[in-house]
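Record filed here:
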Amino acid sequence: MADKWSNWLRKGRFGDDKLAEGSMNWLRQQRDLILNAARISEGDVVLDVGTGDGILGFGALERVGEGGKVIFSDISSDALDMCKEASTSLTNPSRAEFVWADAQDLCEIPSGSVDVIVERAVLIYAANKRSALKHYFRILRKGGRLSMSEPVNRFVVSTTAHRKIFFGYDFTPLGTVGDKLLSAFGFPPDFVGNPMLNFDERDIFSLLLEVGFTVV
């Protein structure tokens, strides 16, 4: 049976076909921004952390050429299976490698073995963001590059929490019923213990410098 993460990727991510079209267009734009910033060259070895359905990894494969390689890594083995299945249509499937690993513990990937790391919305799920970034730095070769995009939920949530707004919906008119619904979703927000809310871009910037990155 597929895990809940891969089930969400397959069935629940977009809601319906109309929403899916707009969301995929946005995701492709995000993919191109991340890959362009990574400055991938032919022959590079690229690690896609938290690959999900592989949108970054397959985009990177188009850029590394026949001499390069992309490592697809995810905590969900079912998500990796989806990517493996998709990779069978490649002219040279051997350019794709698959590693089952938590972003916070990438010990399966040797030190100094990768030219570029790309990821989108991975650290937001990690309780130990410093550990993940230490592994990123360890894995990269000298002169390697990290290109990532992380949503900063704390900014929006902190400006709307006092109004009982959750995911864009105002629960205030529902009174006690609204309070019960919010409570089920972990409201009021936990800005300390919730990994999706306990950081902003300044924290990531500081952590990157702490683990050894020099140009951020």
